[in-house]
Specification:
Blueprint: E1 3-4, H1 5-12, E2 15-17, E3 23-24, E4 26-27, E5 37-40, E6 57-61, E7 73-77, H2 80-95, E8 100-101, E9 106-107, E10 118-119, E11 124-125, E12 130-131, E13 136-137, E14 142-143, E15 148-149, E16 154-155, E17 160-161, E18 166-167, E19 172-173, E20 178-181, E21 186-188, E22 194-196, E23 202-205, E24 210-211, E25 216-218, E26 224-227, E27 232-233, E28 238-239, E29 244-245, E30 250-251, E31 256-257, E32 262-263, E33 268-269, E34 274-275, E35 280-281, E36 286-287, E37 292-293, E38 302-305, E39 308-310, H3 311-322, H4 324-340
Parallel strand pairs: 4-5, 5-6, 6-7, 8-10, 9-11, 10-13, 11-14, 12-15, 13-16, 14-17, 15-18, 16-19, 17-20, 18-23, 19-24, 20-25, 23-26, 24-27, 25-28, 26-29, 27-30, 28-31, 29-32, 30-33, 31-34, 32-35, 33-36, 34-37, 36-38
Antiparallel strand pairs: 1-3, 2-7, 21-22, 38-39
Pathway: Bacterial outer membrane biogenesis; LPS lipid A biosynthesis
Catalytic activity: a UDP-3-O-[(3R)-3-hydroxyacyl]-alpha-D-glucosamine + a (3R)-hydroxyacyl-[ACP] = a UDP-2-N,3-O-bis[(3R)-3-hydroxyacyl]-alpha-D-glucosamine + holo-[ACP] + H(+)
Keywords: Acyltransferase, Lipid A biosynthesis, Lipid biosynthesis, Lipid metabolism, Repeat, Transferase
């Protein structure tokens, strides 16, 4: 896609210093800018690069005053980083603005949809599926019976949305994600065999939820597994049956949350965290990477370790832990002295 400096200045409501007809077709770091590229300057430590960059257009803050001659056109805005992010979002919207139904697809006669639908080749829409406006279903995606999606939902290639799942507006589900598979429910009988407990619930994703590639979210045994609005999940995360995650909580890759655990709002959970089932984690909790959570957690706690401790206590304890060999040697020396007396 090609954009001119004038078009970009209009999108960003910025002040253009340079030729409005200069065209760009790609984005670049300021130190790697070449002719035909667009870049930005937000961090002062990169200022020197603006005088050497070959980028055709650079987005800068309004208070930027060049001290040398520039080869690049400038678009001045209130916040260069925020404006560049806005431009990336706009670029993605344009790039993903596909419409129409490719062939072959399977679309049940009972499935309904709003305006601007995109169905990629080999995608599947089951019975009684209801889709809002501007939904994008990419190739090889599966949408099971009775699934409901709001407006502006994107389901990328190869994602699987099991039956009865409810998805709000502006959600993104990346490739390889599985939403609504059976929860891990088995009960032993008198012979020691494990018999499956039917998983009759569903998954509910509220508005503005992002699901990373390869992430799995299990349906509830009864009721719903729920991700509240604004939840963001990284790649390769496991969310078990009947889990509830509060608004605007973010979870990094390879974390696993066991069944029926409730996580509060605005939490930040690092990668490879393990969380046991049937506990409650409060609001605004921060959990460091590779921690193991086996107890209820109060609001605003910061945890690290396995089993996890208060972050400050963990750091104090770690000082002693890493010195254990020295401490052990000192104790052994003292014992030898006492034995020789």
């Amino acid at each position: 896609m090609i954009f001119t400096a004038g078009q970009i200045a209009g999108i960003l409501e910025g002040e253009l210093e340079g030729n409005p007809d200069i065209a760009v077709h790609k984005l670049a770091k300021i130190e790697e800018g070449v002719k035909g590229s667009l870049t930005f300057l937000a961090n002062p430590k990169y200022t020197s690069h603006i005088y050497t960059t070959k980028a055709s257009i650079t987005i800068v803050n309004k208070d930027f005053v060049p001290e040398q001659h520039l080869e690049t056109a400038l678009i001045k805005v209130d916040d260069a980083y925020e404006s560049f992010s806005k431009l990336l979002e706009y670029y993605n919207q344009v790039k993903n603005n596909k419409e129409g139904i490719e062939n072959p697809v399977y679309k049940s006669d009972s499935a309904t949809h709003g305006e601007g639908l995109y169905l990629g080749a080999f995608s599947y829409l089951g019975h009684n599926v209801r889709l809002g406006d501007h939904v994008k279903i990419y190739p090889n995606a599966y949408v099971g019976d009775n699934v409901v999606m709001g407006n502006n939902v994107i389901v990328f290639a190869g994602a699987k949305i099991y039956s009865e799942t409810v998805i709000g507006n502006n959600c993104v589900i990346h490739s390889g994600a599985v939403v609504g598979a059976d929860g891990f429910g088995f009960a032993p009988n008198k012979n020691g065999e494990f018999k499956k407990i039917p998983q009759t619930g569903n998954v509910v994703l509220e508005d503005n939820v992002d699901i990373g590639a390869g992430t799995t979210i299990d349906r509830a045994t009864l009721g719903s597994t729920i991700l509240r609005k604004g939840v963001k999940l990284d790649n390769q995360i496991q969310i078990a049956h009947n889990v509830e995650i509060g608004e605007h909580t973010v979870i990094a890759a390879q974390t696993g949350v066991a069944g029926s655990t409730k996580i509060g709002k605005q939490c930040m959970i690092g990668g490879q965290v393990g969380i046991v089932g049937h506990i409650t984690i409060g609001d605004r909790v921060k959990i460091q990477a590779q921690s193991g959570i086996g107890r209820n957690v109060k609001d605003d706690e910061v945890l690290q370790g396995s089993p996890a401790l208060n972050y400050g206590d963990y750091n104090k304890s770690y000082v002693h832990f890493k010195n254990l060999p020295k401490i052990t040697n000192r104790i052994n020396e003292l014992e030898k002295k006492l034995d020789s007396e």
